[in-house]
Amino acid sequence: MLKRFLATVAFLLWAMNVTAQPSGSVHFTIERLADGVYAAIAADTGFAVSNAGIVDLGEGVLVFDTFISPRAAADLRRAAIALTGKPILYVVDSHFHNDHVRGNQEFPGARIISTVSTRKAIAENEPEEISWERANVAAKLSAAQKALADEPDKNLWPEDKSWVKYYESIMDSHESLRTVLPDVTFEGKLVLQGHTRPVELLETGRGHTESDLILYLPTEGIVFMGDLLFINRHPYLPDGFPDDWMHVLDRVATLNVRIVVPGHGPLGNSSHLATMAGYIKAVQDLGGKLAKGGATEQEIALQAVPPAFHTWWYSRFFPSNVKYVISLTKEHRPKE
């Protein structure tokens, strides 16, 4: 408990002194984490949707994740060059979801790195997903706009507006979207030994997806987590493996962790790893209880969000998360 308290105090002191760097973009803000290390935090009203990272290696720059929108990714490229004055040598895809890889096309000349499984998943999923979006995203956008217009609670408007922007970003991107696959793949661990600092890319295995990776800066104690970590946001579980995910979070917590950059939400520290694991466990416990009681689809949909997570955004993921863990419970139930 004392260790967690001291870590939280240290993080708050750091946060009070962190300097937000102007990015020149409506899609994200830049946070300086250390000399030559920056987080690009998605703006709620922009086309980035997820967070990204910029790391100066000395001879060039590495970019971690590239947003959902090529338009936002182009601003990320310009910001990285403006902040460092160096060429972008590498782009890293943390996993295959569209909001982390669709900006790849905006980094010509950079080597794009992912795990072997992630490259395969991008190649298999993106064509089908883009096709589905072209047929359905206009209706999704109209529904999101109507939900915003009909929402009486002004406190919910910021999140409702972010969903409108999400669908707008997809529609906007389709005009110029090209799927650019990673050309460097690895399994396990890949170390990039830059002139300024070493960067460790660690494949965590099954977690948020079949294959996730994190970017670890051991000297600075900084971890870019991708969607293995959401802060003040409900994570999306249905492509994941909850038990493995919690083990991944436990393993990351054993590293020298000073700052964590989530895939979605604000910057955090090591305590947020435990909070994320606590959320997954709470959903599992609720799902197990409902499965045992034979809950109907309607009863699952009406389940209240636990008080500890009541203020988190993306609450629409909660029923899907509960339903998913129930399906896993049924899959592993012994046959009678």
Describe this structure in words.
The chain is of the alpha/beta class and 336 residues long. The protein has one domain (2-121, 177-331): Metallo-beta-lactamase, Chain A, CATH 3.60.15.10. Helix content is 42%, strand content 21%. The protein contains nine helices and 13 strands. The strands form two sheets. The chain has an eight-stranded mixed β-sheet with strand order 1-2-3-4-5-6-7-8. A five-stranded mixed β-sheet has the order 9-10-11-12-13. A hairpin with a 6-residue loop joins β10 and β11. α4 (116-150) crosses α5, α6 (242-253) runs antiparallel to α7 and α7 packs across α9 (317-331). The protein is globular, with a radius of gyration of 20 Å. The termini are far apart.
